[in-house]
């Protein structure tokens, strides 16, 4: 059987979301670098109709949209991992937490994170309005996170789920020395620091070289 292929960019946030889940479940995979200049070509759009990275090819089964990919990986390679709880009430809480990430976290963390990334990596001027507006909204959202995480260890309950891991690519990007937003709220900080210490995140994030093949 062919090894699962992840088509993306090793340092791109969405690719990292999928790679983290693959590492979490120790699924052998090959990262196939995609030339960003090619993602709007008809040939690439056959695989990802919106012209974005990443997508996967699991032995001929292709899938795009990172959260759908992560759900597929967890269901296929980690059905007993608890990353997607199966008991109906626990599952509903998981979907609630996943929805919270998608609607209350990513839109603001990604915009703020991109500004910080542009400045750090490309030495570009930060758009202060974009940065401050999104950090201010995110701060209010994290206040609610803090209340949730004051009552339970993870976003969906007492055990780690995909909903927690979904935050990883953008949370570290949105926080910086000057704007240490992920460490402002104590319960959020405790949760965030536990997440970024996970071997599945460090395996990828800590890599200073682009690894194209990652096997277990
Ligand atoms: N909702 C998509 C978002 C994918 C996405 O935004 N990918 C970015 C890289 S992180 C991209 O390809 N950007 C280029 C573009 O949109 O043209 C997913 O989760 O897969």
TrEMBL record:
Keywords: Transferase. One of its GO terms (biological process) is glutathione metabolic process. GO terms for cellular component: cytoplasm. Residues 2-81 form the GST N-terminal domain. Its EC number is 2.5.1.18. It catalyses: RX + glutathione = an S-substituted glutathione + a halide anion + H(+). Residues 87-214 form the GST C-terminal domain. One of its GO terms (molecular function) is glutathione transferase activity. Coiled coil: none annotated. Belongs to the GST superfamily. This is glutathione transferase. It comes from Roridomyces roridus.
